[in-house]
């Protein structure tokens, strides 16, 4: 037929599309949850044991969603020796909305100015904590599509999670994650293995356009999360069984098929309950479970329960948390490093958990393993999917570089500055009173930010925001800082200088950009 292409000429799928590099940013200050318990007048252990949280990172008024994303993108590009002309798609997942029209992605485009690259697809994606996952799927789909032009995609997930004073406030946090997406990745998304569940619900939402605080139905939120997990796991199970059957593999899927499992983490205790929930699903799906020995020992009393009736059943929860304790230690506990120490980052949460796993294992230990990831966003949208780690763990391999880039994660968390609950509360009050103001100059200290952090310098009378960047610790020309031995550059030369626009009220020596023309 005219215009048809012989099968032999059709392009092949790009191989092993997934995450090539991953960068995490969190604020330089935190409040201790034990001290916050005392400050709030609640019982000892309510936050640290009941929620499983040790510390909570937070932002002063010097940082907003734009600055968080500027920082994490700049850091990823510099640390991997990448030029901005090597990026063909950039998409941001966030629920921290400071402009109902202008996307965070367009603010990030100022980082591309010196490269001359404006041919960059993608905008922002929003649905509670799920936006980062939607952005990642879009990036992977782009690389695997006829639209792909051979360049990398860049996915950014960032949020500032703040709550009104009360029981929800200790479940806050802040941070951003940037992920470089391309073929031949050390973390390849498993093709065809996504279990998704979408539904209308008012479990958590933000209808007040002048407030950062959400409206939360705590009980409904837990039920929505766990029911979505049940549904996604069932869909994933069906899809992997179908793949195995086509390949002639006869086996039953279970938690044993994941080496690691990472979850969206509003708080660590919910993640532990979620792992137990998946064991419950395995137990009910098994035709003839052994209740005498092994992981299902002693669980025969729960054989005929209905999952939808057990979301708040303490007996079921207790039994399966106990039964899954060893599996939790092996497969999931390592993923909670950032969550436990920094709190809920919203869209970056599950990817902070993924980074936590990578940071605590060697390339040899990770090679060839499958990692399950559960992403949840209220409202609701959820997906359980998996990534397979490359077998190549040789020195200098993409996996070796990825692990090396995250090996300082714990040290960075430990280097943060602890502030008192009084100071934390004052910061929350200041954000509440000023986050929507025009013609505003932030009051927070710039000197207390991490080196290389972008920060807000002012908001003008038209709500246009201006930013500057703290000097790097190793304040040398960019080309001298790039680690050429670790470079992942495939397409173009790295940028040679930082973007700079007319000066603002920045600290002398800092670099400046804005979010609007002046």
Automatic annotation (TrEMBL):
Positions contributing to CoA binding: 221, 269, 273
EC number: 2.3.3.10
Pfam families hit by this protein: HMG_CoA_synt_C, HMG_CoA_synt_N
Keyword Lipid biosynthesis on entry: yes
Keywords (A to Z) from UniProt: Cholesterol biosynthesis, Cholesterol metabolism, Lipid biosynthesis, Lipid metabolism, Steroid biosynthesis, Steroid metabolism, Sterol biosynthesis, Sterol metabolism, Transferase
Active site per the UniProt annotation: 95 (proton donor/acceptor), 129 (acyl-thioester intermediate), 264 (proton donor/acceptor)
CDD domains reported in the protein's UniProt record: init_cond_enzymes
Pathway in which the depicted protein is active: Metabolic intermediate biosynthesis; (R)-mevalonate biosynthesis; (R)-mevalonate from acetyl-CoA: step 2/3
Alphabetical list of InterPro entries matching this protein: HMG_CoA_synt_AS, HMG_CoA_synt_C_dom, HMG_CoA_synth_N, HMG_CoA_synthase_euk, Thiolase-like
Family label: Belongs to the thiolase-like superfamily. HMG-CoA synthase family.
PANTHER family: 3-HYDROXY-3-METHYLGLUTARYL COENZYME A SYNTHASE, HYDROXYMETHYLGLUTARYL-COA SYNTHASE
Protein name per the record: Hydroxymethylglutaryl-CoA synthase
Species the sequence originates in: Muraenolepis orangiensis
Organism phylogeny: Eukaryota, Metazoa, Chordata, Craniata, Vertebrata
